[in-house]
């Protein structure tokens, strides 16, 4: 794990990663994760999900196929526990795929991203199966108004999605300036016909995601030993949106 930050190719990866992790661990925003009981499920699911991702990364680096299969099986078991805590852990296989595409290439390896994608899908096959089963179960069992995502109470999926475009930037603002935290933040829903605030939020999200895709493409063309900042930035944007997806999109969760 101590060598994992070097994946991005930055010469000072370890101290920078340690500084970022320490700052985030002590960030005032973390108070929301520990100050009310219902959030403990999210903390547990997140810890187990990160453990599953680390095991998948070990499987990626394993010297033999049996060793890789063993690490991948352990990751699948941890993901099962994470899903038992909270369904937000369905993100794990997609997060691993993003990791493999952005940071999985070593110097001298083929440049084609589809090779890394195929290997990531193979190693994460068990995780993908668990995630699909969890989503299918939620779709089958949750009634109207019972979940975030497809039903979203009285809003419906369209207005819920429009509202979450603005909520994403509210989260980003809390990260930059954590004032106004609450157990349950009151947020005015977006209208069915997008208003200027919603359109601005959508444009900003599209620009951010488009910029991340552009950086990722430049990193692919530059090679494995180049463009560490581009690859890290692209992965960071993907990480942000992936982990918000279960509660800020149409993904159904209990």
State the gist of this model:
The chain is mainly alpha-helical and 254 residues long. The protein is built from ten helices and no strands.
What would your notes on this structure say?
The chain is mainly alpha-helical and 254 residues long. Helices cover 65% and strands 0% of the residues. It has 10 helices and no strands. Helix 5 (92-103) runs antiparallel to helix 10 (228-244). The longest helix has 27 residues, at 196-222.
Supply the key terms.
254 residues; mainly alpha; 10 helices; 0% strand; globular
What is the H/E string?
HHHHHHHHHH
Ends distance: 33 Å
Number of helices: 10
Helix content: 55-70%
Tell me the strand percentage band.
Answer: under 5%
Number of strands: 0
Low-confidence runs of at least 5 consecutive residues: none
Major pleated sheet: none
Mean pLDDT: 84
- Please state the CA-atom Rg, rounded to the nearest Å: 19 Å
Give me the secondary-structure topology:
Layout lengths: L12 H13 L5 H4 L5 H22 L3 H21 L6 H12 L9 H11 L1 H17 L14 H21 L19 H27 L5 H17 L10
Helix pairs in contact: 3-4, 3-5, 4-7, 5-6, 5-10, 8-9, 9-10
